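Exercise: predict the fold of this chain.
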Amino acid sequence: MTIYSSSQARAKFFQLIDETNQTHEPIYIKGKRNDAVIISKKDYEGLQETLAIYAVHGLVESILEASKEPLSECISHEEAWK
């Protein structure tokens, strides 16, 4: 885990943006009043998508159950739209 003070983060802000996009590791910033975390946009969007899936009651369980079904028993995309 990489931790920077707010002064350190300010001095290398653009470098930190590049770093978190390359490594997909969060960067923690300790401020005098509050702390923050920098993550890539792609990782943020992935977190939002995961939260949305978990917010729908029973959806995760349904997905897990469906993943156990043999592919040969599934219908094709074209068949689904007939």
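Check your answer against the key: The chain has a mean pLDDT of 92.
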